[in-house]
Fold this sequence. Notes:
Blueprint: H1 2-20, H2 28-47, H3 61-85, H4 87-95, H5 99-107, H6 115-132, H7 148-174, H8 179-200, H9 207-233, H10 238-259, H11 267-283
Helix pairs in contact: 1-3, 1-9, 1-10, 2-3, 2-8, 2-9, 3-4, 3-7, 3-8, 4-7, 4-10, 5-7, 6-11, 10-11
Amino acid sequence: MYTLVLSISCSVAVSVLLKVARSRSIQVDQAIAFNYVMAGTLCWLLLGPQPHTLFASAAPWPLLLALGLLLPSVFLVMAKAVQQAGIVLSDVAQRLSLLLPLIAAFTVFGEPATSQKLMGITVALCALGALLWRPGNHNAQTPGGHGGMLTIALLLGVWVGYGTIDILFKQMAKMGSGFPTTLLGAFILAGLVSFGYLLLRHAAWSLRSMVAGLLLGLLNFGNIYFYVRAHQVYSANPTLVFSAMNIGVIAMGTLVGAGVFKERISWVNALGVGLAIVGIFILFPR
């Protein structure tokens, strides 16, 4: 059980770090770049990838390049969403992104659509609508007083972005590429894109941001590593891992957001959190 607890804790800790970044004068774009240095190093040391296979003619470079661009881009969107919408709604939007690969499973990959999946999708879409709801013409209750439209756009960006990344990883796994090698290749490309972006902007390097990035990479990789280990420990019960991970992150993120950062959400948003948990529970096979 400790593997699940650690994976959930690392996932929520990433959101916490992104939440406090602005108040601690951390440049998020630099932190994200150095995150990939740490994550890539840990992937190399702990997961045993075989990078030479990336240079084989059958290597899925189009998918790798897409991941290399999407990973840092969506991370930036997630960071902005946490600042703008808070940990609670951002974490729920990220977890609801499982809808997109599920929809792709039976619209693109030919998996049959069961009544259970259709029911789960319906509930999860209702949850997404409730999370995105903003009252009338009032501004969202977020730092800086920005309007609700920006909040909606960021939460949708988190949802679509992480869902697309999940689809790409699923497609890559279907092509027979080993997950550790794929992950290392994606981390390397994402790091190159991130550092290239910073160099083009002539960024003023900040030691504080670099150190924060290494911590971010440790947490980011820890989330992935303990998630994989949980699947190995509970290999006979993957449903437990799927449901515990998604529901656990939503529950812990809600507690941290409301308890530590005093985030306030409307009753409709709170209903969305509850519907998200119900939808995730329905979606996973018994």
